[in-house]
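Async update (no meeting this week)

Hi team, since we skipped the sync, here's where things stand on the single-chain job. The sequence we agreed to prioritize is pasted below, unchanged from the tracker. I ran it this morning and attached the output directly underneath so nobody has to dig for it. Comments welcome in thread, and please keep replies under the output.
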Amino acid sequence: MDIKKWIENKGNYKDGILLYAQLSKHNKLLLKNFTQKETKSNFVKLRYELQKNIAATIEVKAEKRLASPIAPVFISEEKVYRKVLLKELPFELHESYRAQKDNYYKATSLHLQLTALKPHEHDKALSFCIQIEGLFDSIEKTWELLDYYKEHGRILETKNEDFSLMSETDLLLTRTSRRSSLTRAKERLQLLNSNYKKSNLIAGKQKYERKIGDKKAHIIKLKLDVDRLNNLIITNQKA
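Output:
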C-alpha cells in the first residue's frame, strides 16, 4: 500500500514504519525511536510524519512486503577508505582508524544479510537498516576527527560532558541549546572561510587558519553532544 491508502485504511503500526523507513529523507533518529517501542504517542507521531509525505509515490505491496528489502543509501568503499596511511597518523588515532574499517566490514555484512532476507522478515530488515545507519554514522564521526588532524596537525580533544544525571526536561533544553549553538557555529565558520579567501596577507591567512581550526573543533564537539543527548532522550522514553 502507499501512504495515502495506509492513512485512509487506518493501517497498522508496523506497516507505517515500513513506509516511513522507505522515505528518501526520513529522520534516522525518529525511525530508531519508532522501532524501539509501539506507543500511542509514537503512533500519532508516525501518522503525522507520513501525512507530511502523503504525496510520496513509494508503495509497499501487502502481499509481497519487502520483496525488495529496504536498502539504505550505501557509502562507497572509496569514500570510507580515504587516502591516509596509518604511519601518517599519531598512535592515539590508530585505534579509531582501525575501528572505522571494522565498522565498514560490519555494515557490508549486514547489508548482505539484509538483501538475503525473506519477504516476511520485515522486523529483521528494519533492525538491519538501523544498525547499518548507526555504523556509517560512527564512521563519519571518526573521519571528522581524522580529517581534523590531517588538516590542522593536532588531535581534537573530545572531553564528554556528563548529561546522564539530567532530567528529561533538561536534556531537551540542553539539546535545543546545542543545536542553536551548532547553527551559529556553522554560520561563523562560513564567514571565517570567506574572510580567509579575501585576505591577501600571510599573517592574516594564518590568523584565519587558526580560527577556522578552532571553529571546526567546536562544531565537531557540538555534534557529538547532540548525538549523546539524542541517545539519552530515547533511552529515557523507553524506560
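Quick observations from my side:
Residues 56-76 have pLDDT under 50 and may be disordered.
The chain is about 70% helix and 0% strand.
Reply here if anything looks off.
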